[in-house]
Design goal:
The chain has 432 residues and is mainly alpha-helical. 62% of the residues lie in helices and 0% in strands. The radius of gyration is 26 Å and the shape is globular.
């Protein structure tokens, strides 16, 4: 199913409560005249903070909250405080989620601690709504390249349990999101048990659920299990989409039947579905897991196949995790414009480093030697992100020195050891 509207958008209908005491006389005619003027001229006459509440400083919100509390105490009525303060808290929660969501959209990643702090803030204010629940669940997969796979799965399970404890009613979108996160995190689970849990919660699986279950079976090379789910889909008249065929390519390949994997493209064509780049990427990943660099080159050299360069990051990851990192430079040759999608490259490097593939991470990182971080800091250097992550992971000194020497030789950092020392001090890692 399609994800719900993003929960972090802050509605412009939230207006700060009136700051003047009730004793101040108000000229209603003047106010109405002003309102009519605004309606005629449009929102361009409104001050910026009214049109764009996401730009309001948090200190303004907290000041308004304190003001409302004082007014409530002076009047001796809790009713004065409850509704406005709740609105301000809702606005603050929306603002926090908006900031995290903007960072995720811009960089494709979010820090675990930042996400959990935001989650705790929202939970303290009351029960998260459906969209907020979806947002936090969705962030626990590939949006966390700096977090190990097992830890990511533990995080999403903890968030799920907390939401359940607070009384959040899960719908099919929440279950589909959890399913996607399990697959992204390579978490091994029972698809039949997952379905049973949905049925126990009176949540009806939809097309997205069945597609996710097929992907889960295919990740384990279980074609029989995937075929059973395909049967359910056909009985419910759900269409067999390109995503399903892509999963079947992976499933056949991981079952050791590469011929059937390649034959999926012919089956798609005969069914009237033209294979697009995502299908070719699925086939490339299958070749990568077998270390078949010649077949990878053949696909990428095919003039009729147009795979976006940034999608090849998954091929590099598949090669590396399958023990064929020596072919990473071959794939990088087909990615001459890495700087144009630098955040995808950074996320790939962070993922490789997190999972213990430092050599491959450094090889990929060198493609960014001409990249300048857009963080507004004139002292920032291209190699900052990978050195900082090395320190955060508390890698052995030998690994840190190797990273420092290679990045300095690639002209990606002028003083790598000094920078890592600063990072260690900021993390209070005295031993390092």
């Amino acid at each position: 199913g399609h994800p719900p509207p993003r929960a972090w958008r802050v509605s412009s209908c939230h207006v700060l409560p009136c700051p003047w005491p009730a004793c101040v006389p108000i000229n209603m005619a003047a106010l109405l005249a002003g309102a009519r003027l605004v309606l005629r001229q449009g929102v361009r006459l409104l001050p910026a903070y009214t049109r764009r509440p996401s730009a309001v400083p948090v200190r303004c919100l907290s000041s308004s909250s304190r003001l409302l509390t004082l007014l409530a105490q002076e009047r001796g009525s809790s009713e004065v405080e409850s509704a406005p303060v709740a609105r301000v808290r809702t606005w603050q929660d929306g603002l926090s989620i908006h900031l995290v969501g903007s960072r995720m959209k811009r960089s494709g990643r979010v820090g675990k601690q930042k996400l959990l702090r935001t989650f705790e803030e929202v939970c303290k204010a009351g029960k998260p709504n459906s969209n907020q629940a979806w947002f936090f669940l969705r962030a626990c997969g590939s949006f966390m390249p700096e977090v190990p796979l097992l830890e990511r799965t533990e995080t999403v399970n903890n968030i799920w349990n907390k939401l359940k404890e607070l009384g959040v009613e899960f719908n099919v979108t929440h279950y589909n999101t959890l399913l996607d996160i399990y697959i992204q995190n390579e978490h091994i689970f029972s698809p039949t048990e997952f379905l049973a849990n949905m049925e126990a919660a009176n949540v009806e699986p939809d097309q997205g659920t069945y597609q996710g279950l097929i992907a889960a079976y295919c990740s384990e090379g279980d074609i029989d299990g995937a075929s059973q789910i395909l049967g359910f889909m056909k009985s419910k008249n759900f269409p067999i989409t390109e995503e399903v065929f892509n999963s079947l390519i992976k499933g056949h390949a991981r079952a050791g039947d590469m011929e059937s994997a390649k034959n999926v493209l012919s089956i798609m064509t005969s069914a009237g579905i033209e294979p697009r780049w995502s299908t070719h990427v699925a086939l490339l990943n299958a070749y990568a897991e077998r270390g078949d660099i010649e077949s990878i080159r053949q696909v990428l050299n095919d003039s009729e196949v147009n795979v976006p360069q940034k999608q090849l990051t998954s091929v590099i990851l598949a090669l590396t995790k399958s023990g064929y990192s020596q072919y990473v430079p071959d794939v990088l040759e087909y990615m001459p414009n890495c700087i144009s999608f630098s955040q995808d490259i950074i996320n790939l490097c962070l993922t490789l480093m997190t999972q213990g593939y430092e050599d491959a991470a450094l090889e990929v990182a060198k493609k960014l030697n001409a990249w300048k971080p857009a963080d507004g800091n004139p002292d920032s250097q291209p190699g900052d992100f990978i050195l900082r992550h090395c320190v955060h992971l508390n890698r052995p000194i030998s690994v840190l020195y190797k990273c420092a020497e290679q990045l300095q030789a690639a002209e990606m950092h002028k003083q790598p050891k000094e920078f890592m020392l600063q990072c260690a001090l900021r993390n209070s890692n005295i031993d390092l």
